[in-house]
Amino acid sequence: MDRYLTPLGKKVVKDAETLCYDPMVKSTEGIGIGRLLNRSLFDATFFTALRGVMEVPLTGYRRPFYIAQGMADTTVPIPLTLKLVGDLKARNVDFTFKAYPGADHS
After folding, report:
1. Most C-beta atoms within 10 A of its C-beta, which of 39, 45, 97, 106?
2. Predicted local confidence at residue 53, as pLDDT
3. How many C-beta atoms lie closer than 10 Å to residue 84's C-beta?
4. Radius of gyration over alpha carbons of the chain, in Å?
5. Are 85 and 58 spatial neighbours (Cβ–Cβ below 8 Å)?
6. 68 vs 91: CA distance, rounded Å
7. pLDDT, tens only, 4-32
8. Looking at residue 106, what is its pLDDT?
């Protein structure tokens, strides 16, 4: 990941290891993504690494679980959650899904 980050980007990532949410938001206020990156993220190597970290498993669940989604969520947009819900249903995973109109990520 370091090769994609500017020195400021490396500092922000390091801070994220120890700062709680509110101090982290305050420390990054006004910093655009362009100041954190020194190269494009649109390459196969990056996407392969990212997929391994970010992808939600579609199998292997031993207990039912609950997925809650705010319809006004801009952190995890509802279309992504609806795709996940469809993929889990196609695999007969035992879960409950509820969408909350007007709710955001919080």
Report:
1. 97
2. 83
3. 18
4. 17
5. no
6. 19
7. 999 999 999 999 999 999 999 999 999 99
8. 87
Concatenating the DSSP letter of every residue in 57-89 gives: PSS---S-EEEEEETT-SSS-HHHHHHHHHHHH
What is the reported pTM?
A: 0.62
At which residue do the structure tokens 């705010």 appear?
70
Region of residue 17 (left: phi > 0; alpha: psi -120 to 50; beta: else): alpha
- Residue type for position 70: G
Q: What tokens were used for 24?
A: 């982290």
Query: Which pLDDT belongs to residue 41?
Result: 83
Convert the pLDDT of each residue in 49-59 to its tens digit. 888 888 899 99
List Cβ neighbours of 95 (8 Å cut-off, separation of 6 or more).
61, 64, 65, 66, 67, 88
d(CA 14, CA 69): 29
71 φ, ψ (degrees, to nearest 5):
-70, -20
